[in-house]
Design goal:
The protein has a 6-stranded mixed sheet, with helices on both faces. It is an alpha/beta fold. The chain has 7 helices and 10 strands. The N and C termini lie far apart (about 45 Å). The chain is globular.
């Protein structure tokens, strides 16, 4: 699939919801671009509109004003070029792990080779789980199943809404490493919404910070060292994390 140079463009986005006789604005004048094979981490205080932004980009809810463009086309409804992974996983409890992983591909009639399926499961550490059901898995394992299902759709853009929020620190870092490895090989871009500073710095080539007062973007931090598995141990990682923390503390 050819990807245009601009790839993703969010233009002066505004989103309001009815609030009695008035309108409550969640996002106001939000603009940014995402290049091919790049990542963005979105941060900001609770209630600042991070998840709403992701849902508008995904075409699941309409913008009040402004527009979203992906690969040269305006996004007005969900598209197969994107895959969304929610914090709640979205797994069907009555289906096995194998059925949950393949569900999206089967619905979209995407042929998945056994080699690719095995490679994705191995990368995420979920080989041997095919016969189990979601209730038999830990939170981290369920999240890996959800990631596998999304990645097998071969999206140009992967949207992640706090995917590792309910997972312990060590498992979270392992999943971050797995996502990064697949990202570097897979040729897709991703946007991750997170409350975790270290996660944003490790996974975001750019870090977009939304101000809960203005409902717009406070700043976009460049993070060129992102992409190295040993980045967490580098001085630049701690310096960028401190910079991001200072920005976030200034929003309180």
């Amino acid at each position: 699939m050819d990807i245009s140079p601009k790839f993703l463009s969010v233009n002066r986005l505004k989103k309001s919801f009815p609030d009695g006789a008035k309108q409550k604005t969640i996002l106001e004048d939000v603009s940014f671009e995402l290049s091919p094979r790049e990542s963005i981490a979105v941060m900001g205080p609770s209630g600042c509109g991070k998840t709403t932004l992701l849902l508008v980009i995904a075409g699941l809810i309409p913008a009040t004003e402004g527009s979203v463009w992906l690969d040269g086309d305006q996004v007005i409804k969900p598209t197969r070029k994107m895959a969304l992974v929610l914090q709640e996983y979205g797994l069907f409890p009555w289906k096995t792990v194998a059925a949950n992983i393949m569900l999206g591909a089967r619905l979209q009639r995407i042929q998945i080779s056994s080699e690719r399926l095995m490679a994705v499961k191995k990368e995420l550490g979920i080989e041997g789980f095919d016969h189990l059901y979601p209730m038999q898995l830990s939170g981290g394992q369920r999240q890996r199943v959800a990631l596998a299902r999304a990645i097998l759709l071969q999206p140009c853009l992967l949207l992640l809404d706090e995917p590792f929020a309910a997972i312990d620190t060590i498992t979270r870092e392992r999943l971050q490493n797995g996502l990064l490895a697949i990202f570097k090989r897979g040729g897709f871009s991703f946007i991750i919404v997170t409350h975790n500073i270290e996660e944003a710095v490790f996974l975001g080539r750019k870090i977009v910070v939304i101000d809960n007062h203005t409902k717009s973007i406070k700043t976009i931090l460049d993070n060129p060292e992102m992409g190295n598995h040993d980045y967490r141990n580098r001085p630049e990682f701690f310096a960028r994390s401190l910079e991001l923390r200072n920005v976030l503390e200034g929003l309180e």
